[in-house]
Amino acid sequence: MTLLADRPVVAPAPSPSAIVGDAASVQTPAVTPARPRWPWVAAGVAFVQYTIIGAWLLYERHYAIGDSLSRTLSAKLMVLSRDPHLGAVGFYWMPMPTIARIPFVLLLQPLGRPELAGPLTSALFAALTIPVLASVARLLRVPRAGAVVAAIYALSPVTMYIGANGMSESMFAFCIALTMWAYLRWRHQGTIQSLALLGLALGVTVACRYEGLVLMPVVALAVALGNERAQRAHAVLLSIIPAAAVFLAWSLASSLILDDGLFWYNASRTTTGTPVDAAWLPSDRSFGSVVGYLAVIVGALAPALLAVAAGCVSAFRRWRTSIGIVAFIAGIPSVVAIQLVGGSSWGVPRFFVTIPVVAAIGVLWVVRAARGDRRTAAFGVAGVVLLAVGSVTGGLVLSSHRYAYAEGEYAFFGPLFGREPAGQTVPADGPNRVFSGDIRPYERVTVDLDRLLATGQRAAMDSLQAVPVLLSDHPKQWIVPEDRDFEEILSDPVGRFDFIVILPSTSPTVYRVLLENELQRNTGGEWAEVGDYDGVVLVYEWVPTGHRSTFVQGDRLQTPAPDL
User: Fold this and answer.
1) Helical pair 169-189 and 355-369, crossing angle rounded to 10 deg
2) Which residue from 122, 197, 326, 424 could staple onto 170, CB 3.0 to 4.6 Å apart?
């Protein structure tokens, strides 16, 4: 059975230069040349480069995004904690970015550097995107343009950042690129096998991030437009069933373990509301101001989208694929716009850093569609140029303290663009913190506690963002909320652990309950505050009556924070 992307035109000798993916182009594929080696060599070089940048951000800039550290921690708890179990993966995010870190955690823990698992994972997927772009170009028979576009993408500061920061954006960009490659492959071949491959690629994308759900209607629309009415329903179902199965399986696991199949949604309602005083967002949340904000951010990160959109209009005789490309372009920004208007998103610029990979593939499509069409060819050339321009303008936006203050992206982009002066610390998190992701307080408390944990003492962590546990050389000496007996132990803490580590800014409710209720109800001693790390991390120790604390806090950071 064949589900054709378009009806083939019967011709005795179809032209090898026919445009890929439209009615006149579905044909017997020509002999495919050997795959070039350069994309994999480039990927290897890029992987090393992104990893070095990631290590520099961690150990020289002391910068890490909390969500990245949290995912790496979950991976560590799954395999190296006192209570290893699959449920420790956490259900706030989709599982693939966490599970992918496990091999790196196992490799790096004996070296005392498990926190590097995040940058290594993001570097791997950012590097793997290069061969995908090369494969798209090879499929579209524009290998030279593909080499240029892949080089621009790989060397872009924005790509370097998502490849180094340990977050899931590089993996999501890879998955989006893989899905678009599978879509174009189906448009080229029109077989049921290629459509099934598209469905699998979409399923992997959904397993990466919840935003992948947005691509389900995008793919459904693109596939529906590419099939005759009699085949449309079957083709659409085949393309989205794997993604739906992934999401349903994840919801079932969440329901069995947490008694809430939509935990991710219900939890995000209390954690992702739009901040009232966000410096990076417009003061009001009207539709017009939100669209203007998105235009600035998306336009800076991927100005090539203008050329892609114009090229799709110019090549509209291939309207099925053109609409598919435009749908991929509009997917993520549209959802963020709706969330911002509804007050349910932070809307930080980092949410849009996957757009450049969509722009890169869109440019390759326009270049291919321009065969024999000078006007479309001009848009293709403009798209390549604007991809390079976006590498600079996107970096400039992310070096701005206004737009990058929420996540501190200027830790990387500031030095790159010479914009470090006139910065500020994070006032809510203490005078020694420069970035919202400054990890120095966690590093210092881990050093101080590990001295005691090495002797057999135990510590408990009140927060799911247990960064000291991630950095610790003694993870089995920690009691954390992911442990299945955590509530039982916390209900009767004396004698079961010696220290409790509290992050008041991330868990103020737990912090208050522990101090005012649980920890102070015991007799024969007290839970005394013995360590304060810039107000970011507090350490309490159970000190029996008549005894002294065993905890010694190391030297505080005496040097002033750099003025960024």
Assistant:
1) 20
2) 122
Q: Tell whether the model's pLDDT for residue 84 goes beyond 50.
A: yes
Q: Count of alpha carbons within 13 Å of 154, Cβ hemisphere only?
A: 28
Angle of CA points 505, 509, 512, to nearest 5°: 95
Contact (Cβ atoms closer than 8 angstroms) between residue 70 and residue 37:
no
> Are the CB atoms for 361 and 177 separated by under 8 Å?
yes
| Confidence band for 518, pLDDT divided at 50, 70 and 90 | low
Single pTM value for the model: 0.87
Structure tokens that stand for 47 in this block: 């992987």
Q: Rounded to whole angstroms, how far apart are CA atoms 345 and 445?
A: 32
Q: Pull the structure tokens for residue 275.
A: 């901040």
Segment (H or E) for 461: strand 459-461
- The 10s digit of each residue's pLDDT in 454-498 is 999 999 987 777 889 999 999 999 999 899 998 888 778 888 899
Structure token pair of residue 468: 């000291």
Please report, for residues 72, 208, 406, 454, the alpha-carbon distance to residue 76 in angstroms, rounded to integers and kept in the order given.
Answer: 6, 18, 27, 18
Provide the H-helix boundaries in 259-286.
263-271
The DSSP-derived string for 238-264 is HHHHHHHHHHHHHHHHHHHHHS-TTHH
User: Residue 137 to residues 129, 132, 133, 160, 554: CA-CA distances in angstroms?
Assistant: 13, 9, 6, 22, 55
Confidence of residue 317 (pLDDT cuts 50, 70, 90): confident
Q: How confident is the model at residue 61 (pLDDT cuts 50, 70, 90)?
A: confident
Q: How many CB atoms lie within 10 A of CB 406?
A: 17
The pair of three-digit structure tokens given for residue 415, joined into one six-digit string: 């030095």
